[in-house]
Design a protein that fits this description.
Order of helices and strands: EEEEHEEEHHEEEE
Number of helices: 3
Largest sheet: 6 strands, antiparallel
Oligomer: single chain
Distance between the termini: 32 Å
Helix content: 10-25%
Radius of gyration: 17 Å
Strand content: 25-35%
Length: 174
Amino acid sequence: LLQPDDDKTQTYVPLISGTMVSHYRIVEKIGAGGMGEVYLAEDTQLDRKVALKFLPSHLCQDADCRTRFKREAQAAAKLDHPNIVAVFDVGEFQGRPFFSMQHVEGQTLREVLAGKTMPLDQILEIGIQVCEGLQAAHEKGITHRDIKPSNILIDSHGRARIVDFGLASVLGSD
């Protein structure tokens, strides 16, 4: 017998340019992966650009996915390091969990490397920065577990920024 909460169908409003999500105005979709869709947005209260990461609509009814998504936001929010993208806020919009984070102007390391060679000194500098960010996470009991070129952003100043703590393990949690 179906209970009212067993209905896994829900209609979601598409996140298009101009949609208001709390005090954030969607500008455009800038990325997507297995556990999230990322949008560029304007923080209308602080007058700045942010990135909003939403749990994909097809996963919103899955309690384990919601828990994992929340854990990602909590893990990243515990970290304050120049090589880790900062998390600002967490919320829900029409049944879709989301969190806001620092918007980084730049490209993923994957995009930077696409078909190109990189000078050794630049490779070493990026590697050191990633290691420094991971060390800061490890000192807080957080293991990223998904370091790859698409999860490292290189900003307009050449600084590496680690993103996507979706597979992170947090010491002391399940």
